[in-house]
Design goal:
alpha/beta; five-stranded mixed beta barrel; binds 5'-deoxyadenosine; binds iron/sulfur cluster; six-stranded parallel sheet
Length: 483
């Protein structure tokens, strides 16, 4: 398959119903999928619409990882019922992981959902939308113009073509893009829905990944984040050569014009040491690792089917820090997993103290239908206990983040500037005269993914800039530019 950028088709869809509105829940994979879908819609002549009430095509790209995420989507679908009953002037497509999980049940339960399409079928979405619109325009049986499109394992070539047409479209961050390196997951952690909705692990051909990165860099992208559920298990065989994540990093690093490369999410097993050496030797490869631990208790890790022990996990990070001293680590934890005792929770707090994460995402366990934990383990930690543990973990992380960030005061860091800061008022130390300087407050990130705000001209957006840190909170560093 060759790579090419196709120009948009001629606008054949100029009427009001040809506007689209897309809302994305969940992870970075979903953000990328939404971008690819947007790309296809625009090629077909659809125009973006900034309010759901005016859009002819409404797309919810959904997440299934926790029940709460699904409930939010169901409520959004529910809110469209009245408009559907009165006017039927829109086509609602529910796509993503929840679409895959609920499938026909979504179509059966919600008349206003015209299309339900899983994450491995999104290359079909525009055709499905056109079909529904045509059948409805013909006015014969509008209720029956509804489609379900779920997994077909034979479809990966078509998904590859979709990825290869990737035209980055984030207007807020035009110089940062995601590139998928693999699909699905083989790990089957006992709590996780991902392998059931995104399928088994498939690594993309390395040439496709590199060509896509080149294509994006040619369009002005400065930072690429490579995406995979367990990205260090990337493995692609071509003419007797086996390629891994380290090979991708080396090749992408060679692309001229690109400033930074990140990769998420890593799994704490089979992590090639070569990757740490590349972080240390290749300036564009960021010294940042997103390495979910999920728990600090071996007993719970076993029940989660995580296939490593707490000491394996610590040892991996210590090896990394020995090679890359400035390495920063972000973690994920689940609290209140079935059977989690206070002593397990204390072990998780202890792991957090030991690793000193840059930041952590903490989630209350949510049973997901058909997973092993759902089938075999009672959700026996009461919600108030889960909530208490969640707050304790977050409070500890807040303390660690604050302490570690104080150590950065006075240091110089290089940041990639992202644009205007969303919360300039948070920098309460800025005197009135500061806030009246000619420059607005901008935000950027270090190699280690730390957020830095500083005053500077807007044209610095998308550029690498040196700043000196003068103040720090647990999640934000405040810097000033060298004039
Ligand atoms: N309940 C709570 N959190 C979950 N995660 C995955 N599945 C569940 C679940 N059933 C969390 C894990 C994972 C992150 C993306 O979401 O921490 O790393
Ligand atoms: Fe889910 Fe585990 Fe796969 Fe991550 S590694 S996507 S938590 S099954």
């Amino acid at each position: 398959m060759s790579f090419y950028i196709q120009e948009p088709h001629k606008n054949k869809n100029q009427n009001m119903n040809a506007t689209y509105y897309i809302e994305t829940m969940g992870c970075q994979m979903n953000k990328l999928d939404s971008e690819l879908v947007t790309n296809e819609l625009e090629r077909a002549g659809y125009q973006p619409c900034d309010h759901i009430n005016n859009a002819g095509i409404i797309i919810f790209n959904t997440c299934s990882v926790r029940q709460h995420a699904e409930e939010k989507v169901l409520s959004k679908i529910g809110q469209l019922r009245k408009r559907y009953m009165q006017k039927k002037d829109f086509v609602l497509a529910v796509i993503g992981c929840m679409a895959q999980r609920l499938g026909q049940d979504l179509l059966d339960g919600w008349d206003q959902a015209a299309i339900v399409c899983g994450p491995n079928q999104i290359h079909e979405l525009v055709d499905l939308i056109e079909k529904v619109r045509t059948e409805r325009d013909q006015g014969t049986k509008p209720r029956q113009a509804r489609y379900l499109s779920l997994n077909d394992p034979e479809q990966d070539d078509l998904l590859e073509e979709l990825d290869s047409r990737h035209q980055h479209r984030d207007e807020r961050l035009p110089f940062m893009a995601f590139v998928r390196v693999m699909r699905g997951c083989n790990y089957f952690c006992s709590y996780c829905i991902v392998p059931y909705v995104r399928g088994r692990e498939r690594s993309r051909p390395i040439k496709h990944i590199i060509d896509e990165c080149k294509q994006l860099t040619d369009k002005g992208v400065k930072e690429i984040t490579l995406l995979g559920q367990t990205i260090n298990s990337y493995r692609y065989e071509d003419h007797d050569t086996i390629y891994g994540l380290a090979d991708i990093l080396e090749s992408v690093h060679a692309i001229e014009g690109l400033d930074r490369i990140r990769f998420v999410t890593s799994y704490p097993r089979h992590f090639e040491e070569r990757i740490f050496h590349l972080m240390a030797s290749l300036p564009k490869v960021c010294s940042y690792l997103h390495l979910p631990a999920q728990s600090g208790s071996d007993r719970i890790l076993k029940a989660m089917n995580r296939r490593y022990t707490v000491s394996d996990y610590i040892e991996l990070i210590e090896r990394g820090k020995a090679i890359v001293p400035e390495l920063t680590v972000a973690g994920d934890f689940i609290c209140g997993f079935p059977g989690e005792q206070e002593s397990d929770h204390q072990a998780t707090l202890e792991l957090m103290r030991r690793i000193r994460y840059k930041n952590c995402f903490v989630f209350k366990y949510s049973p997901r239908p058909n997973t092993k934990a759902w089938q075999k383990m009672a959700d026996d930690v009461p919600d108030d206990v889960k909530q208490g543990r969640l707050e304790e973990l977050l409070a500890l992380q807040h303390e660690i983040g604050y302490e570690d960030n104080q150590g950065l005061i006075g240091q110089s860091v290089e940041i990639l500037v992202e644009g205007f800061s969303k919360n300039p008022h948070l920098d309460s130390d800025r005197s009135t005269s500061d806030t009246e300087t000619a420059y607005p407050q901008l935000t950027g990130r270090t190699q280690g993914d730390q957020i830095v705000v500083f005053d500077g001209p807007e044209w610095l957006t998308g550029k690498l800039v040196e700043v000196k840190i003068r103040k720090a909170s647990s999640l934000t560093l405040f810097g000033e530019r060298y004039e």
